[in-house]
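Purpose: get a first structural picture of the assembly so the mutagenesis plan has something to point at.
Setup: two entries, given in the order below. No constraints added.
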Amino acid sequence: MIIKLNKEIYPVKAVRKAVHFYRKIAAFKLKEEGGYLLVSGKPEKEDEELVRDEFLNFVLGIIRQ
Amino acid sequence: MNKILFSLNSKITSLEALYSACYVFIDKFYIYLDKKGENFIVSLQPKTQVKADPRKVEGEFRNELLNSLLREKITGNNSKIREYIIGQALYSSVPSEIDEFLSKTGEDYQEDPLGIAIPWEEKAKKRAKAGKARKKAGAK
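Result (C-alpha cells, whole complex):
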C-alpha cells in the first residue's frame, strides 16, 4: 500500500507524527519523491483501504491541531 | 454513495480555510486532498453507506469553505483589537508601580494629609470660622 500525499497540502511534520501514531497498526515508511510524500507499508491485521482512509483523516486532524 | 470529487481554485481558497472545512466533514467522510496546478482536488468518501445527494454534499462543503474563509478574514481584521483587549486585560491584572510603592511606604492613596481633596468652599468656611474665633479671643 502506498499513500501519496502532496507536500503543499500535507506538512511533513504532521505526516511523520501520524506515521509514529500508526506504528502499532502498520509499520509505515516515509519517503519524499518530487512534490509528494510517499507513505508505504502494510497493515498487520486491518483492512488496507480502511487503514489508508483513516490515516488520511488522522493526518488532517493533526494538521488542524 | 461513491466518491465525491471536485476541484477548488487555490487563488480563491486558502489552505487554512480548506483544512477548517475538511475538519467539519471529517466525522462523516474520508477526505483526501491533492493539488493540480492552481486547483485543490477534494475527494470525499462517505464512511457509511448512506443515501445522500453528492451535489448536496459538495454544496455543503463549499458553503462551509465560504464560512471558514469569512471567519479567517474577520479574524485577520480584528487581530489588532483582540491583541489590545487581551493586552489591557493582562496589564490590569499586574500591580502597577504606584501600588507597589504605596505598599512599601505603607501609605494609602485615599489618605489626604495635606487636604488637597477638600473643596475650596469648605476650606474657606473653616478659615472664616478660625478668623472669627481669633478675633473674639483678641477682643477678650
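Residues 108-139 of chain B form one domain.
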